[in-house]
Amino acid sequence: MDLGITGRTALVTGGDSGIGWHTARLLLAEGATVVVTDRDQAALDEAAARLDGADGRLHAFAADITDTAQLAALHDSVREAVGEIDILVQAAGVTGAQGLFHEIDDEGWVSTVETDLLGPVRVTREFLPDLRTGGWGRLVFLASEDAVQPYDDELPYCAAKAGVLALAKGLSRSYAAEGLLVNAVSPAFIHTPMTDAMMQKRSEQLGVPTEEAIASFLDEERPYMELKRRGEPEEVANVVVFLCSDAASFVNGSNYRVDSGSVATI
């Protein structure tokens, strides 16, 4: 299928690994020019080197999405390299503070919300003028199943991601008449460095191999994931790129779950 994004320009945050990296790969394959960003330039450069065949259409600039000055500098670099963007995919995020509510202090809440909610707010505010130019734009936020099905041992993350869904819905009402469509994608338990770290910790706590830790996590913590496996990041990226495309020209204000059925309600 021709997704109609050849010649478009995209910025992907969290683009050095996981869902962000695979989204960048698919956008490049569809003919877009792509800028990837994350905090570490060396990691970005290594990630960019694994994205072959971009023909000069790939750029990598480091920035911390919690830092407005760094985002302004990123915007300057993007303008100089590729001009204005048409597509923004906000994929950067962290697991954040974990534990039961009474175990998490203010710093745990603040640091999680800074990255997982205020980060997307700041990135969007910085690049919104680009997306409102030209009568065509796409903005996709990576949320989570946790936004609508919160878990008691990671409430800061759940609350931040619920905020992302509200942000996406609100923005979708503000700018659709200008041609900017805003949507969210909510994965569940995807095979990324974030869940690798979670499962390594679980493996050590239980004293079992990692694969056994994953299997027990699925049985005990995610019983409605009917495919009984972690999702692959490209399975999420496929949906993200669809929402970035002309094929999604009547999709606005939606939240697409890519979760193997993990969310138990309709």
UniProtKB/TrEMBL annotation:
Gene Ontology biological process terms in this record: monocarboxylic acid metabolic process
Keywords: Oxidoreductase
Xref: Pfam families: adh_short_C2
UniProt-listed Enzyme Commission number(s): 1.1.1.-
Protein name stated in the entry: SDR family NAD(P)-dependent oxidoreductase
Main enzyme class: oxidoreductase
PROSITE patterns, per database record: ADH_SHORT
SUPFAM superfamilies xref list: NAD(P)-binding Rossmann-fold domains
Family matches, as InterPro entries: NAD(P)-bd_dom_sf (IPR036291), Sc_DH/Rdtase_CS (IPR020904), SDR (IPR050259), SDR_fam (IPR002347)
PANTHER family in UniProt: 3-OXOACYL-(ACYL-CARRIER-PROTEIN) REDUCTASE, 3-OXOACYL-[ACYL-CARRIER-PROTEIN] REDUCTASE FABG
Family to which the UniProt record says this protein belongs: Belongs to the short-chain dehydrogenases/reductases (SDR) family.
Transmembrane feature ranges: none
Keyword presence, Oxidoreductase: yes
Keyword Ligase tagged: no
GO molecular function, one term: oxidoreductase activity
